[in-house]
Task: inverse folding
C-alpha cells in the first residue's frame, strides 16, 4: 500500500525534507490547476467592469443574471440536449458492438480470431481525424451529413478498438465453469452471453464507457466539419456560437463556459475513481 | 456449407458436434459482422480513400483527373506551400519536445509525489486530473480570455504583484504565442501522464524497493536505476500518446489563435494547415481536397511510421530490464 | 430513367409556366439569419404581386454557408435561388455551372448598376453575369463622436492631422484606435481603411491592369503609414483579437476603429448610446483624394437546374428594383448598388457619399481566386510588419512573390 515510512536512511534532503518538498510541489500544482477554474466560475458572476477592475475578487454569488442570460438567450440547453443524445447513442452502440466482437474473440476459438483482434488493435493507432475528407464525402453520399447520425457513426467507429481491447482482456479472465454449466443446462449461446456473461462484465463496461465518454462528449473537430445546422450542434461546437454572440460581454462568456464545464465536472467529482481508472485504462493495461 | 444437415433431427448423437459447430459458426459470424462492418465502413474505407484522393485534382467536392504525385510535390516542394508545410512541421516538433519535458516531466514528478501518499494525496490527484476531463474548447476560451493583453487575468496578476515588465500580449507576440499554447496544453493534460505514471509506480512490488533502499541512500539513484526502468511500460504509453497528440494538434490552437496560426504562422501546426487547405477559410476562399488529402496522408504516414518504430524500440527497452 | 424524369419535370415546368395559377414553390437560401424578418416582408410583397409563386426563405450560419451550398449543389439538392458570395468564392460556385446566367432582359435593374458592382457577380471566363449584386461594404475609419467633441477634435484633412488627433486622444487617457492584429483578416481591413488615400487611385488601376505590382513605392508608402499609426493602437495590440477590438470601441474606451462599414450596425446594437461618425483616412496632403476601400458582399442567383426558371427570373428581377432596394437599404442598413434608392439613415448616407471616391478592396476583389490568395499573404505580412518583424518593403515583396507564383503579370 503505502511506501512511506519504509526508509531506513535519509536521502539528500532527509526523509522529512523530501516529503515536505513533495508536499509543496503538490500544493503548488493543485493551486495552479484549480485557480483558473475558480476564476472562471467567479467571473461568471461578475460584470465586465468588475472583471476588468478586480479580476480576483469574490463576487456576489446571488447575482446569476449572466447564467440566466446564457440559458435563455442562447441555444445552450439545446446544445446540451444534443450532446446527451449523441454521446448516449454512441456509447450505447460502441459498447454493444464492442462487446459482441470481444465476446466472439475471447470466448471462442476460431480461425482468424487473433487476426481480427489485431485488426481492431490497428484501429487504436489510426488518427481518424485525418480521414475527415473521405468521411465528409461518405456522409454526403449516405445523406447523413449535417445530422447526428454522422457523429454517432464516427464516434462508434472511433471507440470500437479501445472497447474491443478492454472487453477482450476482461472477458478472457472470466471463468469457463459458469458458461459450461449453462451450456450443460441447454442454454443457447445467446442466452449464455446475455444472462450469464454480460452481467459479469459490468466493471469492464464502465471502464470502456468512461474511456470513450470523455473524448466523445468533448469532441469539437467532427461536428465542426459535419454539422452546419445550429439546432443540431453539440455543446463544444455550440459554445463557439454563443461565445461569438457575447464576445463583448465577458461575464456572460465566463458564465457560459462554467455552465458548459459543469455536467462533466460534476460527474467527474462524483465518480472520480471510475473516471481516473477508465481514462487511463488503455494506458495501464 | 453443411446446411442440409441442420434440418436433421438433433437427437442423433453423431450429428451433434457438427451441428453445434455450424450453429456456433453462425453465432460467431453474427457477433463479428456488425462491428467489423462499422470498422470497415467508417475507418478502413475512409483511410484508404484519403490515400486515393491525394492523387486526384479536386474542384470543390468534385473529383477531377488523376494527377499522380502532383499534390504531394506541391505540398512538400512548391513555394509558398512548402514553406508553410515545413514551418508547421517545425512547430509540431517543437511542441512535441516541449511537452515531453514539461507535460511528461512534470507528470512524472507529480506522480512520484502522489505515490508517497502524503496527506491530501487523494484531493491532489482529483485536482490534477480535473482539466483532463474538460473540453478543449472550454480550456481554450478560458485561457484566451486570461491571456488578453489589457484585461486578461494573467497580465492583471503580473501587474498586481509589480511584475509589469512581464505583462505582454502573450498570444500576439511571436516569441511567446506558441509557448503560451504549450503551457495551456500542459496545464490541461499533465494529469494524464501523472496518473499513468502513478499507476505504474503503484505496481512496483515493495520488496524490490525495500531491498534497493538497503543498498543506497540516494533516492535519485534509486529512481534512475530501479524505479524508472520498472515503470518503462507507463513511459512508453505516455511518450507514444504524446507523440500522436502533438502531431495531430488542432483544437487548442484553433480556438486560441485561429486557423491561420496567428501571429503570422508562428503558431501554425500541421493540423491547422490541413484544415485550412481542405475546408478553406474566409480569406483563402478556396478549398482544395487534393492538397488537403496529400497533407493528411503525409501526416498519417509520418505518425504511423515513427510511432511504430519508437514503440518497438521502447518495448524492447522494457523487456531488457 | 433519368431522361424520363427530366422530361417529366420539363413537362411539369412547362405546364407551370403556361398556367401560372399552379403554385410554384421556390426555395431561397441565405447566410443572413439575422435578416429573416425583413426578407420575409420583402417576399410577402413579391408574392402579393406575383400570385402563384411562393418563396421560402431558409437561412444558414454564415461561416458554414459555403460548404452547405456547394455540398447541396453538388448533390443536386440545391435551392432554386440563393445568395452567393462575390469574387473568388462566387467563381467557385458559378464556375461549376451551378448558376443560371442572367441578362438585362431578365433583370432590367442591372442596367443601372455600376460596373464594379456587376464585376463582383461576373464570371471572368465567359463574361456573363450570374447574380444580382446586393450590398457593398466600405473600409473606413469609424469614430466616437462624443470623444471627438469632448476633445474638440474634427475629422482630419491630412495624415498629420489624423496623427495629431490620435495623440490628443491618447493624452486624454484613452485608446486612440481600438484595432488589434491578432485576428488575421483584421490586418487586411486596417490597411484598406487607413492606407488607401496614401496609396492613391492610380496604383489600384495599374495593379488591376497588371502594369505594376505590390512592390510599387505607392503601395509601400501606404504600408509605412499604417505602420506609423500603429503606434496609436492599444498596448499589446498584437494580442488583441477582433472581438476585443470591437469591445474597446463599443465600450467607449477607444475613439476610433479602422474597419468595415458592416461594423456600424453591430456597434449600434451593442451600445445604442454611442454616437458614431465615419471618415475616410486622409492622404499626406489635403489635396489627396480621400479614398475608401469598397467591395461587394454577394448577389442573388438562380439555380441553373431549377424547374421554375421563369419564376426565378421574376424574383431576381424583383431584387434589382428600387422598391426592393429601398427596403433592403433602410431596413437592413446596407448600401445597395440599385439606383434611385434614398437612404433615411444619415450615417449610411455619409458612407454612400464616401463610396463616390473609392478604390477596390483589392485582395478580395482581384487576388482571391487562387492559392495563396493575396489576402492570406497580405494579412500575414502586415501582422508581421506591425509586430516589428519585417519592413514595409519586405512585406510588399513577400506579397508580390506569393501572388507571382500563379499570376503572370507579377512574374517579371
Result:
Amino acid at each position: 500500500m503505502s511506501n512511506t515510512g519504509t526508509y531506513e536512511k535519509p536521502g539528500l534532503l532527509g526523509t522529512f525534507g523530501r516529503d515536505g518538498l513533495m508536499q509543496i510541489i503538490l500544493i503548488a500544482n493543485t493551486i495552479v490547476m484549480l485557480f483558473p477554474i475558480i476564476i472562471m466560475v467567479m467571473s461568471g458572476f461578475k460584470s465586465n467592469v468588475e472583471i476588468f477592475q478586480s479580476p480576483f475578487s469574490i463576487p456576489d454569488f446571488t447575482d446569476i443574471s449572466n447564467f440566466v442570460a446564457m440559458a435563455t438567450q442562447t441555444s445552450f440547453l439545446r446544445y446540451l440536449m444534443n450532446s446527451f443524445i449523441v454521446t448516449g447513442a454512441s456509447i450505447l452502440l460502441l459498447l454493444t458492438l464492442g462487446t459482441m466482437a470481444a465476446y466472439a474473440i475471447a470466448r471462442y476459438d476460431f480461425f482468424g480470431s487473433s487476426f481480427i483482434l489485431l485488426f481492431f488493435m490497428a484501429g487504436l493507432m489510426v488518427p481518424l481525424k485525418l480521414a475527415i475528407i473521405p468521411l465528409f464525402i461518405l456522409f454526403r453520399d449516405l445523406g447523413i451529413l449535417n445530422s447526428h447520425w454522422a457523429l454517432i457513426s464516427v464516434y462508434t467507429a472511433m471507440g470500437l478498438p479501445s472497447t474491443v481491447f478492454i472487453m477482450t482482456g476482461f472477458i478472457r479472465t472470466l471463468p469457463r465453469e459458469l458458461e459450461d454449466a449453462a451450456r450443460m443446462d441447454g442454454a443457447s449461446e445467446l442466452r449464455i452471453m446475455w444472462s450469464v456473461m454480460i452481467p459479469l462484465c459490468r466493471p469492464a463496461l464502465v471502464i470502456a464507457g468512461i474511456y470513450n465518454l470523455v473524448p466523445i462528449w468533448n469532441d469539437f473537430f467532427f461536428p465542426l466539419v459535419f454539422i452546419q445546422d445550429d439546432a443540431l450542434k453539440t455543446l463544444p461546437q455550440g459554445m463557439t456560437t454563443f461565445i461569438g454572440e457575447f464576445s463583448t460581454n465577458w461575464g456572460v462568456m465566463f458564465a457560459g463556459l462554467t455552465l458548459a464545464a459543469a455536467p462533466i465536472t460534476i460527474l467527474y467529482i462524483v465518480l472520480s475513481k471510475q473516471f481516473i481508472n477508465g481514462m487511463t485504462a488503455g494506458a495501464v493495461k | 456449407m453443411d446446411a442440409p444437415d441442420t434440418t436433421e433431427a438433433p437427437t442423433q448423437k453423431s450429428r451433434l458436434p457438427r451441428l453445434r459447430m455450424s450453429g456456433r459458426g453462425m453465432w460467431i459470424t453474427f457477433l463479428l459482422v456488425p462491428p467489423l462492418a462499422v470498422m470497415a465502413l467508417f475507418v478502413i474505407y475512409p483511410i484508404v480513400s484519403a490515400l486515393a484522393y491525394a492523387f486526384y485534382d479536386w474542384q470543390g467536392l468534385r473529383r477531377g483527373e488523376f494527377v499522380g504525385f502532383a499534390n504531394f510535390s506541391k505540398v512538400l516542394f512548391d513555394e509558398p506551400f512548402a514553406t508553410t508545410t515545413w514551418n508547421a512541421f517545425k512547430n509540431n516538433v517543437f511542441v512535441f519536445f516541449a511537452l515531453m519535458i514539461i507535460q511528461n516531466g512534470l507528470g512524472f514528478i507529480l506522480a512520484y509525489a502522489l505515490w508517497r501518499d502524503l496527506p491530501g494525496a487523494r484531493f491532489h490527484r482529483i485536482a490534477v486530473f480535473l482539466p483532463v476531463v474538460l473540453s478543449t474548447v472550454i480550456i481554450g476560451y478560458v485561457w484566451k480570455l486570461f491571456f488578453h493583453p489589457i484585461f486578461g487575468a494573467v497580465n492583471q496578476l503580473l501587474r498586481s504583484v509589480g511584475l509589469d515588465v512581464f505583462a505582454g500580449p502573450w498570444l500576439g507576440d511571436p516569441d511567446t504565442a506558441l509557448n503560451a499554447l504549450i503551457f495551456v496544453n500542459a496545464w490541461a493534460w499533465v494529469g494524464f501522464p501523472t496518473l499513468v505514471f502513478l499507476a505504474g509506480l503503484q505496481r512496483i512490488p515493495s520488496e524490490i524497493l525495500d531491498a534497493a533502499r538497503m543498498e543506497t541512500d540516494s533516492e535519485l539513484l534509486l529512481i534512475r536505476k530501479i524505479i524508472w526502468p520498472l515503470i518503462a511500460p507507463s513511459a512508453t504509453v505516455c511518450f507514444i500518446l504524446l507523440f500522436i497528440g502533438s502531431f495531430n494538434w488542432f483544437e487548442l490552437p484553433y480556438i486560441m489563435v485561429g486557423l491561420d496560426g496567428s501571429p503570422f504562422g508562428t503558431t501554425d501546426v500541421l493540423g491547422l494547415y490541413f484544415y485550412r487547405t481542405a475546408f478553406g477559410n474566409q480569406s483563402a476562399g478556396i478549398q482544395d481536397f487534393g492538397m488537403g488529402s496529400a497533407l493528411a496522408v503525409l501526416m498519417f504516414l509520418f505518425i504511423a511510421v515513427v510511432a511504430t518504430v519508437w514503440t518497438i524500440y521502447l518495448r524492447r527497452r522494457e523487456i531488457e530490464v | 430513367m433519368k431522361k424520363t424524369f427530366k422530361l417529366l419535370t420539363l413537362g411539369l415546368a412547362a405546364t407551370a409556366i403556361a398556367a401560372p395559377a399552379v403554385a410554384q414553390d421556390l426555395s431561397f437560401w441565405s447566410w443572413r439569419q439575422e435578416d429573416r424578418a425583413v426578407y420575409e416582408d420583402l417576399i410577402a410583397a413579391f408574392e402579393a404581386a406575383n400570385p402563384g409563386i411562393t418563396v421560402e426563405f431558409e437561412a444558414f450560419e454564415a461561416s458554414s454557408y459555403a460548404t452547405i451550398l456547394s455540398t447541396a449543389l453538388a448533390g443536386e439538392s440545391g435551392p432554386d435561388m440563393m445568395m452567393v458570395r462575390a469574387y473568388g468564392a462566387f467563381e467557385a460556385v458559378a464556375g461549376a455551372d451551378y448558376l443560371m446566367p442572367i441578362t438585362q432582359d431578365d433583370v432590367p435593374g442591372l442596367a443601372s448598376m455600376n460596373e464594379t458592382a456587376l464585376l463582383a457577380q461576373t464570371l471572368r471566363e465567359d463574361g456573363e453575369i450570374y447574380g444580382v449584386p446586393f450590398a457593398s461594404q466600405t473600409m473606413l475609419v469609424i469614430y466616437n463622436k462624443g470623444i471627438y467633441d469632448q476633445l474638440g477634435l474634427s475629422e482630419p484633412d491630412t495624415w498629420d492631422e489624423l496623427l495629431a488627433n490620435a495623440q490628443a486622444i491618447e493624452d486624454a487617457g484613452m485608446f486612440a484606435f481600438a484595432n488589434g492584429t491578432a485576428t488575421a483578416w483584421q490586418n487586411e481591413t486596417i490597411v484598406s481603411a487607413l492606407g488607401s488615400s496614401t496609396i492613391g487611385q492610380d496604383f489600384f488601376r495599374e495593379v488591376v491592369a497588371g502594369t505594376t505590382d505590390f512592390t510599387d513605392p505607392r503601395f509601400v508608402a501606404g504600408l509605412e503609414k499604417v505602420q506609423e499609426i500603429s503606434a496609436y493602437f492599444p498596448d499589446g495590440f498584437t494580442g488583441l483579437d477582433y472581438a476585443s477590438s470591437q469591445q474597446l470601441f463599443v465600450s467607449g474606451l477607444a475613439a476610433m476603429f479602422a474597419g468595415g462599414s458592416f461594423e456600424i450596425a453591430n456597434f449600434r446594437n451593442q451600445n445604442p448610446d454611442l454616437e458614431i461618425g465615419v471618415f475616410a483616412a486622409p492622404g499626406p496632403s489635403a489635396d489627396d483624394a480621400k479614398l475608401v476601400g469598397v467591395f461587394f458582399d454577394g448577389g442573388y442567383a438562380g439555380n441553373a437546374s431549377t424547374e421554375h426558371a421563369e419564376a426565378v427570373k421574376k424574383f431576381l428581377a424583383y431584387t434589382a428594383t428600387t422598391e426592393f432596394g429601398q427596403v433592403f437599404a433602410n431596413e437592413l442598413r446596407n448600401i445597395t448598388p440599385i439606383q434611385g434608392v434614398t437612404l433615411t439613415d444619415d450615417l449610411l448616407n455619409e458612407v454612400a457619399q464616401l463610396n463616390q471616391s473609392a478604390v477596390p478592396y483589392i485582395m478580395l476583389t482581384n487576388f482571391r481566386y487562387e492559392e495563396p490568395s493575396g489576402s492570406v499573404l497580405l494579412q500575414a505580412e502586415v501582422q508581421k510588419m506591425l509586430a516589428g518583424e519585417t519592413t514595409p518593403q519586405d512585406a510588399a515583396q513577400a506579397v508580390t512573390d506569393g501572388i507571382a507564383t500563379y499570376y503572370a503579370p507579377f512574374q517579371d
